[in-house]
Amino acid sequence: MERLTRVIAGAVVVSAGLIAIGGVLLRGYGWVDMFQFSVALAIASSRVSGRGVIVRRLAAVEGLGSCTLIASDKTGTLTCNELTVRRVVLASGIEFSVTGEGYAGEGKIEGGDRHASGTELEDLLRTAILCNEAELECDTDRTAVAGDTGHTPAAEDPDATRPGTGGVWSWQGDPTDEALLALGRKAGLRRSEVTSQYPEEHAVPFESERQYAATFHSCGGDGSSAEGLLVCVKGAPEKVLAMCGDAVPGAHRAAEAMASDGLRVLALADAGVASTEENFDGTLRLLGFVGMIDPLRPGVVEAVAACHDAGIGVSMITGDHPVTALAIARELGLATDPGQVATGKDVLEHTQEGTLADFVALTRVFARIAPTQKLDIVEAAQAAGHFVAVTGDGVNDAPALRQANIGVAMGAAGTDVAREAAELVITDDNIATIVSAVEDGRVAYDNVRKVVFLLLSTGLAEVLMLGAVVVSGWPAVHDGSIILPLLPVQALVTNGIQDVALAFEPAEGNVLLRPPRPPSERIFDRLMLERTILSALVMSIVGLAAFHWMLEYADWSVEASRNALLLLVVFFENMHVGNARSEVASIFRLSPLRSPILLTGVLLALGVHVLAMYMPWLQRVLGTSPIPVPHVVLLAGIALTVVLAMELHKVYWNRYHGALRS
């Protein structure tokens, strides 16, 4: 777009210069007159260049009009990122259900046989609380204010609060850790009390590559461990089970059964160790699994369906278990069977084999993906020919956001690094907002084409009108001298309001039902070229013919003829705005009331010219004067020729090329 504006501006300036030189050398015009006209035309060209500034600021939104694939995180973008533990399965197979919503520690742990489970449940809850970096408190001194929904989750507000039945809950930290603390509170366990019994000595933070977190605690002399330290571990089931020396038979099946229900599954284990340096791999005792639900955001299913209708693919990238990812993907309509889910291992294998681009082109669900692999997926999608929009919120997402054609950072839960690496920031972290941005991008691109067409065709008409006079010496007055059809100052004021208003034109129907435009598509394509040349020729030829008729047959003075031609040009441009509203739809199918800003702009432009015809000081500046009403009606009728020409072209284009742009 920036290159186009430079080319257009340069072409008009060169044309203006050539016309000025030709007018002086061929027709004997004065240098002053020709210089004034050159300046007028050059200023007119800057209107198009000025639109480039606006387009550059909206480049990311406009680029979304070409988007063919959205690579989205699951947590927080497709889901609410407010986890709630729904199920607990102990290593012995005893199962409990959990009630309550969100991070408020209100609810119950129900079912199961607590007597048969012995201390298993207590040990699991202890590990869930100790291997944890979050904070969850209930301020019983604060009461919920009537009407206070406290809806802000921790992912969106690090100091979030929510009113409960006994006070106001506040939390800070990772959503997974918050859900585990809420589980403990439902069993009557407070983090502060548990950590006072088991002070933390060392911590191994969670990393995607490691797939687990561990904390070491002194045992407080309660005899729960024969060793000096208690290590608490939580992480991906397959990783934790591999570190358990006494993994229970069927444990993998239990974890997969939970995941198949759409639950995000964590395994918890502990062990007694002598020191923080000890390698506990293979010595852990499996305590059980917790299954958490992260509900889909409202409207996200419809948003994904809208993407598919718009010809845009959606890929879900998550670190969750493949079975969990499949369950969510089924709800979203992204996959139906396990064979459609790729894992980080699959991505690594295809990367090594050099076949990742073909693999990514056929895959829409990626599970157990490390942050570094997200960049590989984006690069592979681009290699497969996609124009990719990528969502991300973390520091590790920055490389993928930079590589993407359009990087979209999460404004609520995202890091500063992610926001700086992205072109767009969405404030509600919702993929439905991205779909709306895609729609805005398509409308923005359409409106850029409309404004460029209007400016080019009207500017070219003035250039052709003046150039024809300079080259041909027609029309001429009775004494044989050649006159200019418009004064320089008149050429400057013929437009400027309508094109600005046209930029606010609403969408033509449902633009999301169109396929994405090819990223390589030039804005100045065959359709715009035909429309620009045809309309410019009609306006310039009809305008010059009318000017000649006024001088030769109506016997009007030069000043009166210029005054009438100026009004005709204003009528041309006001009616041509209607032609510009759609490239293929008839002007008679587009109600002017659909675009009140454009209607106001057209009426304002016409009103300004009417004032110029009646206000003495503007009459002196612009060379205008009042025109009889019958002549005004005649000029308006003549201006309809440009509407007729463009309507005929739309009929022709729809019949022979309609499939190219619909």
Shape: elongated
Give the name of the CATH architecture of the largest domain.
Up-down Bundle
**How does the major sheet shape up?**
8 strands, antiparallel
The CATH fourth-level homologous superfamily of the largest domain: Calcium-transporting ATPase, transmembrane domain
Whole-number count of domains: 3
CATH class of the largest domain: Mainly Alpha
The rounded distance between the terminal residues' Cα atoms is 22 Å
Explain this structure to me?
The chain has an eight-stranded antiparallel sheet. Helix 9 (251-260) runs parallel beside helix 11. Helix content is 50%, strand content 14%. The two termini are 22 Å apart. Residues 24-58, 141-159 and 221-226 have low confidence and may be disordered. It has three domains: 2-57 and 436-660, Up-down Bundle (Calcium-transporting ATPase, transmembrane domain), CATH 1.20.1110.10; 70-78 and 296-429, HAD superfamily/HAD-like (Rossmann fold), CATH 3.40.50; 84-293, Calcium-transporting ATPase, cytoplasmic domain N (3-Layer(aba) Sandwich). The protein has 662 residues and is of the alpha/beta class. Strand 2 and strand 3 form a beta hairpin. It is elongated.
